[in-house]
Amino acid sequence: MTGNDLNIAPTFILGDAVPDPEPSPELQRRLAIRRSAPAQALATPGPDRDQLTDILRLGARSPDHGKMTPWRFVVLGPQSRADIAEKLAAYATASDMPAKAVAVLAKLTAAPVSILVVSTAREGAKPVWEQELSAGAVCMNLEHAASAHGFATSWITDWYSYDAEAAALFGVRTGEKVAGFIHIGTSPDPLLERERPDLTALTEWRD
């Protein structure tokens, strides 16, 4: 087991004994205060290359039935997103709701960095649905990992995720799907709590 420094989570190699989890009030606190930030409001600073590498590594430690790795990452900096957004604007103006389609592009370009999680689920020994769930778990773990580095995040898709020609601008291939864009940066304003689910209406207890 190795670690780069005190701020980077330890890494393991095949065959290492992974420590049993210990009670962590800090992790509980982070989960309790988790809140998505408005993507269009995310600003600098964002994670540097080393922090991004660590965020990706932690995100990849997600449930993956059959070790199929049914997802991949595309890390998008400001320039690449600005270039793609310019091309997407042409698609947006031809849509049924052009003003709204153009407006949401601000969510794509604002953050210092974005991680596109591409679902690469394929027919095989494990159900496609489980592979797609794995990609969703990766998205959530990326958010937690970015939070652990002190950043705010927003997980979005928007219309261009579901338009094959538009998604192809990001390198999404035939048969793949966009699981989400994880936008990472710093929120300039405090994030306000929103309404949360009523667990009593959603939970069934059985002995």
* Strand residues, percent: 5-15%
In total, how many domains does the architecture comprise? 1
Q: End-to-end span in angstroms?
A: 40 Å
Query: How would you name the CATH homologous superfamily?
Result: NADH Oxidase
List the helices and strands and how they pair.
Layout: H1 25-33, H2 49-59, E1 71-76, H3 78-93, H4 98-103, H5 105-109, E2 113-119, H6 128-148, E3 152-156, H7 164-168, E4 177-185, H8 199-202
Antiparallel strand pairs: 1-2, 2-4, 3-4
Helix pairs in contact: 2-6
Question: Explain this structure to me?
Answer:
The protein is globular, with a radius of gyration of 18 Å. It is α+β, with helices and mostly antiparallel strands. The protein has one domain (36-189): NADH Oxidase. The chain has helices at 25-33, 49-59, 78-93, 98-103, 105-109, 128-148, 164-168, 199-202; strands at residues 71-76, 113-119, 152-156, 177-185. The protein contains 8 helices and 4 strands, in the order ααβαααβαβαβα.
Features:
four-stranded antiparallel sheet; 207 residues; alpha+beta; NADH Oxidase
